[in-house]
Design goal:
- This protein is α+β, with helices and mostly antiparallel strands.
- About 35% of the residues lie in helices and about 20% in strands.
- It has helices at about 15-20, 45-50, 60-74; strands spanning about 30-35, 35-45.
- Strand 1 (about 30-35) and strand 2 form a beta hairpin.
């Protein structure tokens, strides 16, 4: 998918992207500049929703494993 940047620096988010990520008129986007390029991430009003899907997964299991390892060291 592509969009064009206007003379004022504006662009349109393709409808498919808006539907997939449930983006609406009041939603905000964060632009992250990385060495490989630019990443655009929706900023959710709900802080829990903002972090959902951002981790590596299995966070609870990793936490329990770390706790067990710490307990063995004591």
């Amino acid at each position: 998918m592509r969009s064009t940047i206007t003379a004022r620096g504006q662009t349109v988010i393709p409808a498919e992207v808006r539907r997939r990520f449930r983006l609406g008129p009041a939603d905000r986007l964060e632009w992250i500049v990385e060495p490989q390029g630019i990443r655009v991430v929706p900023v959710r009003a709900d802080p829990v929703e903002a972090f959902r899907g951002q981790g590596k997964g299995r966070a609870t299991q990793r936490l329990l494993d770390d706790r067990r390892l710490d307990a063995r060291k004591e």
